[in-house]
Amino acid sequence: MKKHAIPLFVLALLTVLVFTSCDMINNFIASRTRNIAVIQVFNSNHEETRYFQPNDTMYVQIQGLKANGFYQVDCLDPDSKVITTLTALADENGVIAPSPIWYDVGFKKVYNVSLGRYVAVLPSTTELGLNAFNIRIHDAEATDTVTDFKLPFFVVYNTNISRPQPIIMAGRMDNSIFVVENSFAAGDGLYVQAANLTSLPTPAPESGKVMIYLVPFDGGYYKDGEPITNIVAKQEATIDQLIAGVQFTATSTAGFPDVGGASWATIPTGAKGHAFSVIVDVNENGIYDEKKEGTTDYYLDGIDGNGVAGFIVKSDPPPPPVVNVDYIPANIASGGVSWGHFWFENWPDYDYRNTFNADGSQTQYGWDWQYGGYGVKALWNPYLSHDPQVPNSGAANSELYYGKYVDVYIVDAAAVDLTGATKITPVTGTHKMTMPVQYACTNGAAQQTIWRASPGSPMTVGSYCVVVDVDQDGYVSDGDLVDNLHKGESAPSDGIGFSVQ
Amino acid sequence: MKKRLLLLAFALLLCIGSAVAQAEDTQFALFKRTIAPVMRWGENGIMTVPKATTLGRANFFVGAMGQKAGTLQGLDLYLTSASLMAGTSDDVEIGYTRRQLIWEDLYFSNLSMDTFHMKARFLNLTDYFIPQAALGINAVSLRDNKFTDRNSILFNPYLAVTSTIPIFTTKMLLSVTAVAETIMNQNALGSYQFSGGADLNLFNFLYGFAEIQGFNPAATNSEVINAGAKLRLGSLSAGVGLFNIKLVKGEGATVVDQYASSFLDLANANYMATVALDIRLGKKAPAKK
User: How is chain A split into domains, by residue range?
Assistant: First the structure.
């Protein structure tokens, strides 16, 4: 007994501390806690989780930063190579609002020989997948030189649960093989395929089929229980058809702007320059139901393009530029005002603007949850693809991530060099912003704030262009996007993208 | 008989070496570093690789370790782990680990993660030579650090096999371990991963160990190695480990040539310190001959 006296005493002490002093311990911990969740990751349903459906988007939120500081957030593989990265401005509370950092989670990139480029494929339909990585936050331009830290994270994605959420993919057929695609041309065939979908739900719809809805992408986000109201076209399909990949051949709703009455046997000409999401409504109730009511793991409908576009249809090439760089003129600067999914009279214009107030007034959140802060937002969508479709992730594991990131600048309209000879210089008060984008369509900004008008620090009056440096070479070069257009223009008139007044 | 057992142990070592020579998965290794309990290094586990040996009935273990995560607005942040393990019988141990981000001024962040552990040894014919085997599981929440919904828990089941070999005397013990494991959630399994390692116990005072975590025979890549040493004085022990050392294979026509010209890459390695307290209330089980 004597031998055990000290261990017994220690154990008794621990027991007393744990069981009789819980309140004291909890109070002590609470009094010694800074209520700052430094780094958190979310899925596209705005849930803080380590569980993702494949094809989902991972968002990262950072807290505890310097107000209005400019930071870089990296996803690093275990060898510290960059998987994907972004730069972002902290708000007045030192928070970087949830921002998309990893698109198409769970997919890997594989070179498709017949297409001659990389495509995204699901690693397995039967396995539980795992991605483990570090997220690092550090200052991007010496606005806060005393912040640099990283934390390990892991996420799993499951393609084989009792009733998983269907993974909906728009794509094309290549030699009878379905290939996921984000960027189409008018005249292409549009196919829809579902993974994780083996049967109709209970109760099953009377038709014994599911409904595929084609809806415009308007920059917004479909919430659980939201009616599907803005329907471009819809088509029924059996489960087996969806699993194999079914061609979408429906006729557009009569009177729908640009595409009304047109068949989708091949993508209609009127769809050029527009972006879409694809919703599969498995119980045909006309509502986007993420899960069966009262359940936590009984998923119902699936969507390709929630918060980001599912796919885009490329516009005709713009008029040849008078300069020797084959850049793409496009509207990019946006006020971020979103009006939900209830519009029908016209295609969404993503709140592209010609003028902004210096104090950022009358601009607002792209959506409530995301991209907080007032000022100029960036949104390029639809995209006129010159994308070489080569992922630029530096991760050692070449299959880890199919995606890329681009640089976005706000430049003085009088100083932008469209010959590509002069390095792009962001105007005072702005930064070179790095943003991850989706593969193939290079879409993804989704109203990220690129010039924040903070209290006491208004935007500078002047005329500006927005440059998306797709190849990140620091110059305007072939394939880069330049917002030197007025809203609605297809060719630049005075070379000004937007003005601050 | 002893010669035959020595040969058996040697064969086990060769098996580990052969598996190591094939591949690894650095992501799985990072995952394991994130969820593994603070082991009694070199005793119930190597570092993050569990051994088939257990704490023993009525013995408790409290361990902690930490590493610097970086600096946030001038204040250093540390990622810490604390584990409480308990031997509920000679062959079963259970445990709980709390991971907590802590500021240098000892304020907590509200970022934390709980992990639960259980291990049951099912094969223990002798203490030495003949391998012991155990099944174990780690459990971590996928949502809000809550364990109320089984579907929101990620399980990490494993099978560990350990053989302990006395070197001239039972005061000097070489132990080799091989582990097969996977992840499991909502009745789905991940791919199988393999880990292994060895530890040397000198007079229950000085421990040295090395492990290779998360290699995947189906892939080919470089291996991740963790290595460390520990001193124990009575119930107290302290150790230091170097995690995430990468073994980069060199050029060569054969695997042997590649390993002969390989080198260790420390660029992404991290030091980790641990302190631990043993609370021994149970008697050590009599040695099996």
Answer: 2-31, 167-313
What residue numbers bound the domain in which B220 lies?
2-280
CATH of the domain at B72: 2.40.160.40
> CB contact, 8 Å: B189 with chain A?
yes
User: Pick from A449, A446, A450: which is nearest to A221 by CA?
Assistant: A446
Give yes or no for a cis peptide into A382 (omega within 30° of 0): yes
Query: CA A136 from chain center: how many Å?
Result: 19
Cβ contact, residue pair B34, A131, below 8 Å:
no
- Chain B touched by A192 (CB under 8 Å): no
Residue owning tokens 């702007």: A257
Domain membership flag for residue B122: yes
Cα A331 from chain centre: 18
Its sign, for the CA torsion A66, A68, A69, A75, is positive
Shortest CA gap B111–chain A (Å): 5
* Contact check, Cβ <8 Å, B186/A161: yes
Preceding peptide of B217 cis, ω within 30°: no
Which residue in the set B107, B188, B190 is minimally distant from A161, CB to CB?
Answer: B188
ipTM more than 0.90? no
Mean pLDDT across B99-116: 91
Nearest Cα residue to B101 out of A155, A30, A132, A33: A33
Closest CA to B192 of B201, B179, B205, B204: B179
Q: Which of residues 104-163 of A touch B (CB under 8 A)?
A: 126-134, 136, 144, 146-154, 156, 158-162
Looking only at the bridges linking them, the beta strands covering B108-123 and A33-34 are parallel
Using CA atoms, how far apart are residues A427 and A430, in angstroms rounded to an integer? 6
Measured distance CA(A254)–CA(B25) in Å, rounded: 54
Describe chain A by its helix, strand, coil percentages, rounded to 5: 10, 35, 55
Residue B285 maps to a domain: no
B10 touches chain A (CB under 8 A): no
Cβ A84 vs Cβ A102: under 8 Å: yes
Residue-wise pLDDT tens digits, A169-226: 899 998 888 887 878 889 999 999 987 788 899 889 999 999 999 999 877 778 888 9
CA of B122 vs chain A CAs: smallest distance (Å) = 27
Note the pLDDT tens digit of each residue in A353-396.
Answer: 999 999 888 887 554 444 456 789 888 765 545 554 555 555 44
Total domain count, chain B = 1
